[in-house]
Each structure stands twice: as structure tokens, then as C-alpha cells.
Specification:
The protein is of the alpha+beta class and 490 residues long. It has helices spanning 5-13, 54-59, 78-81, 85-94, 97-110, 114-125, 129-147, 152-158, 164-175, 179-189, 211-220, 268-279, 285-293, 299-304, 316-325, 331-345, 363-366, 378-392, 404-412, 419-428, 441-450, 456-462, 470-478; strands spanning 24-27, 32-34, 48-51, 63-64, 198-203, 227-230, 233-239, 244-251, 256-262. Helix 4 packs antiparallel against helix 5 and helix 15 packs antiparallel against helix 20 (419-428). The model has no long low-confidence stretch (mean pLDDT 91).
């Protein structure tokens, strides 16, 4: 979008927050860059230039605006709606892969050479993987500086910097303030977290956001010991790169409140990325809802409660296991099966607030389970053990960087995996915005009540007009049935 100068200028002059994250405005006279919705008086048109990423702005020598903080904008929705190599690379960079494995590790995961990845990212984002990772490290450092009391040396290494000098230079260059000045400014305007070790921050999103189906779904399907709804917040344990964590996510009118307790602060970037992915916070709800409103039978559902998101997962392998446990049983029965698995094979953790007790077991931990101990039909035991074996030995990968169509083929080849299981994993674990569930009982009931075709083939044909947002159409169709997933817990 940044190449459409006329459209970008209109967005800046109208301070349209819908375009935050789509592009960034760099001001030639002040050498700062802003988000489109920056509250200051817009610069003259001849002084504006536009970039596709914050990293490209920084690489061109511009500093982040202290007023609108463009480094904290929601991510571009393009990376959630696409499955090509650039989108997958951006999701991996967001997860901190470059910091942990370098550019060669990023390229190896994508199956390309480092030179090819560099060229593709430069063409679309104006910055290579190192510059994009540097911009993310700067944002992580800022969060740690402003929300924790960690010494600056610990902040530097936790944010992914290789040296304290590089950390200091980068913070000064990006924010035009020294690390100590950032902390002093934050101390005057923020209230420290009452719980020692807890990192409290805000997760921005594009409005509107309807929290009822999003948090209602997560709370209704919560696995005891791993997840819970408490005091208006969804809480769960997280398995991360250097340790584990506990997160509490609370919906607010203009942001999601996020409280993180980490065993290792180096996992902050990954934890934030997982939480944003879980809640689908980088989506563009206006584009989605406008497309779905074009169907006169869907339009009333969209108008009644716009801004629905797709509830995802923090771990693709975990969700695949839970999808198998939930085949042809009620939500309550699926929770019971998962809770037994967690109690037997999950890693115990300490929760200072109580309520959470385990991490969800990894595929490696489940690889040696005795299928005879599972209270499941024999065919589903085979399905589960085959899935776990494929995940544990690396034959099947279900991450944010996974190619959607390849994963569908691999999942469909496993015993006991029908279209519903494959597509619900594609929708919630892989993030495919066009995944569709025409055989789902709730979808078929909604179709009958709304006057849509009720047979899977006919409904799929009608849903072609909803592409590429059929996963969001599923969220609206599920609201026709009065199910707990559609309501925030009292």
C-alpha cells in the first residue's frame, strides 16, 4: 500500500487508525516516522514519504515518533492472510527466530537460501531479515525498560542484543533517547505491577474487536490446569524457548491487557507473538466484515456484532492433539480427556495466583504414552498415537511458518483425519483465514436457520463469495446457536 501515495496521504490527513501497521509515514524535515493516526498536525504532503515497515524507516535514518509510538502498532494483516514465503518469514521473525537461529536458520525453515529470503523481504518491506529483527529487538527492549525493573544489562540480552553497546546505540538511534531516559519517562506515566516479576503491557488491535466469541471460546474449551477464566481474564501456561510462562489476557475497549510472568525474560518477544496470534490481533476486521456483508444472509449477523476474530492457539501441536480428543464428543468431554492427558504427562509449574498447575504435554512427552490407558475408542487411540509420533519425529510440523496446503495434505494422510479435523486445525492452529467447516454440526444448523444451503457441497459453493475470509464467516455462523463459546463467562 505504501506505493499508493494519494491513498496514504488521505489516510494520514484523516488520522485513520485502520491503516496503522499497513504503512508508516516518514517526515523528511523532522526525520521522524509516525503511524497514520498520529495525533499531531499532519506534515505537508511534499514532506511525506511512505515505507512498508518500521524497520525500513529506521534503516533510512528516521526515528520513532515519541507521541504516537509507531513501533507499537498492530502488525500488518497481510502476514496473517498469506501463506507465501514472505508472510511465513515475517511470522518467524515475529517469533524471534532470527535472534535465536540467525538468517541461515530462518532460510532453512522456509526451504530457501539466505540470499533469496533477503531479496524477497527487501522487495516487499524495504528491509532485510536482520533489519526487521533489529526493529523488533528495539521494541522488546523498550517494553522491558518501561515495564520492569531489570538492570539494563539484563534487558539488553533478554531483548536479543549481542552486546550492551549495541543495545545502547540501537535504543538511542531508534527512539532518540538513552535507555535510562526511557525508563525515567515511563516511571512518571505508568504504575508498576503490584506482583514482582510480572510484565504488564497493552496489546493494540484494529477496531472493532468483539471479545464475546473470542474469549468465550477460549474459556468454554479451557483445559483444567492449563487454562482458566478468572476475574475477567483468560489465563494459561505457555511453553516457550528458554522456559515457561503464565499469561493473563483481559479485554478492554481499546486494547488487550496482558500480564506475563516468565521464567526467562528472553522469551518476551515469543510470548507476545504467541498472545497476539492466539487472539488474532493483527486482523483487519473492517476488510473482513465488508466482504461478508456482501451476502445479504450474513449481513445481519455482521451488523449485530462486528469485529469477530478467529480464536487460535499458542501451540499448533497442542491444538492438533486437542482436536483429535474432541472428535465426535461434547466440549465438556473433550476438556475431560485433555485434562487427564495433562495430569499424566504435563510438566508441573508453580502459579503464584493458583489455578494453573501444568504445561500442556509436548509431542515428545506424549510419544511414549500407553494407548491402552486412554479412555478413547480404539480407532481414536490409533489416530492420536500416529499424530503424536509424526509431530515428535518432525515428519509433521504445525507452526506459524507451515505451508497451509502442504499441512492439509499431510494431515489428511493420517488415519482418522477427516475434512472437519483437517480444516479446524488449519483455521485455529495454522491461521488460514479461509478455512471452512461445512460439515460442522453448528454450521449446518446455522445454515438451515438462515436459509443458506445446508448440505456441505452446496454450502461450500455458496461460501465461495466469502473468500478469503471463510474462517471469519464460521465465527459469525456459530453465533446463531446459543452455545457457551459465544458468551463471556460471568
Amino acid at each position: 500500500m505504501h506505493t499508493d501515495t494519494e491513498r496514504c496521504v488521505r489516510a494520514v490527513q484523516s488520522k485513520d487508525a485502520r491503516f496503522d501497521g499497513w504503512f508508516f509515514t516518514a517526515v523528511l524535515t523532522t526525520r521522524i516516522y509516525c503511524r497514520p493516526s498520529c495525533p499531531v498536525v499532519p506534515p505537508k504532503v511534499e514532506n511525506m514519504t511512505f515505507y512498508p515497515s518500521a524497520a525500513a524507516c529506521q534503516q533510512a535514518g528516521f526515528r520513532a515518533c515519541k507521541r504516537c509510538r509507531p513501533d507499537t502498532t498492530p502488525g500488518s494483516p497481510e502476514w496473517n492472510a498469506r501463506a507465501d514465503s514472505v508472510a511465513r518469514a515475517m511470522r518467524l521473525i515475529r517469533d524471534g527466530v532470527v535472534d535465536r537461529e540467525g538468517v541461515p536458520g530462518l532460510a532453512a525453515r522456509l526451504g530457501y537460501s539466505a540470499r533469496q529470503i533477503e531479496r524477497q523481504l527487501l522487495a516487499e518491506l524495504g528491509a532485510g531479515p536482520l533489519a526487521l529483527a533489529r526493529a523488533q529487538r528495539a521494541q522488546t527492549a523498550r517494553l522491558l525498560i518501561e515495564t520492569t525493573g531489570l538492570p539494563m544489562a539484563e534487558v539488553a540480552f533478554a531483548a536479543g542484543f549481542s552486546s550492551i553497546r549495541t543495545f545502547n546505540d540501537t535504543v538511542r538511534e531508534v527512539f532518540a533517547l538513552a535507555p535510562g531516559e526511557l525508563r525515567s519517562r515511563a516511571a512518571r506515566s505508568t504504575t508498576p505491577s503490584p506482583t514482582p516479576g510480572v510484565i504488564a503491557l497493552r496489546l493494540p488491535y484494529r477496531a472493532p474487536l468483539n471479545p464475546t466469541n473470542l474469549f468465550g471460546h477460549l474459556a468454554a474449551t479451557a483445559v483444567p490446569g492449563v487454562e482458566e477464566w478468572r476475574d475477567g481474564a483468560y489465563r494459561r501456561t505457555l511453553t516457550l524457548g528458554h522456559g515457561h510462562g503464565i499469561v493473563a489476557l483481559t479485554p478492554h475497549p481499546d486494547h488487550i491487557g496482558c500480564r506475563l510472568l516468565l521464567t526467562d525474560p528472553r522469551d518476551l518477544t515469543l510470548a507476545i507473538s504467541r498472545c497476539r496470534w492466539l487472539l488474532d490481533l493483527d486482523a483487519d476486521p473492517v476488510a473482513v466484515d465488508d466482504q461478508l456483508r456482501s451476502d445479504p444472509l450474513l449481513a445481519p449477523l455482521v451488523d449485530k456484532a462486528p469485529g469477530r476474530r478467529v480464536p487460535r492457539t499458542v501451540d499448533g501441536a497442542e491444538f492438533a492433539v486437542r482436536a483429535v480428543l474432541g472428535q465426535q464428543v461434547s466440549t465438556a468431554a473433550a476438556r475431560t480427556h485433555a485434562a487427564r492427558l495433562v495430569a499424566a504427562h504435563g510438566l508441573p509449574v508453580d502459579d503464584p495466583e493458583g489455578g494453573l498447575s501444568h504445561l500442556f504435554p509436548t509431542p515428545e512427552a506424549l510419544a511414549g504414552l500407553d494407548p491402552e490407558q486412554l479412555a478413547l475408542p480404539r480407532s481414536r487411540r490409533t489416530t492420536l498415537t500416529t499424530l503424536v509420533t509424526a509431530l515428535a519425529d518432525g515428519a509433521l510440523r504445525l507452526g506459524t511458518d507451515t505451508d497451509w496446503e502442504e499441512a492439509r495434505v499431510e494431515l489428511a494422510a493420517l488415519p482418522g483425519f477427516g475434512p472437519w479435523t483437517v480444516d479446524v486445525i488449519a483455521m485455529r492452529a495454522l491461521g488460514d483465514p479461509d478455512a471452512f467447516l461445512p460439515t460442522d454440526l453448528g454450521i449446518r444448523r446455522a445454515a438451515e436457520e438462515l436459509g443458506l444451503p445446508s448440505t456441505p457441497a452446496a454450502l461450500t459453493a455458496r461460501a465461495a463469495a466469502w473468500r478469503p475470509w471463510r474462517a471469519y464467516a464460521v465465527q459469525y455462523l456459530w453465533t446463531v446457536d446459543d452455545h457457551p463459546i459465544n458468551h463471556l463467562p460471568v
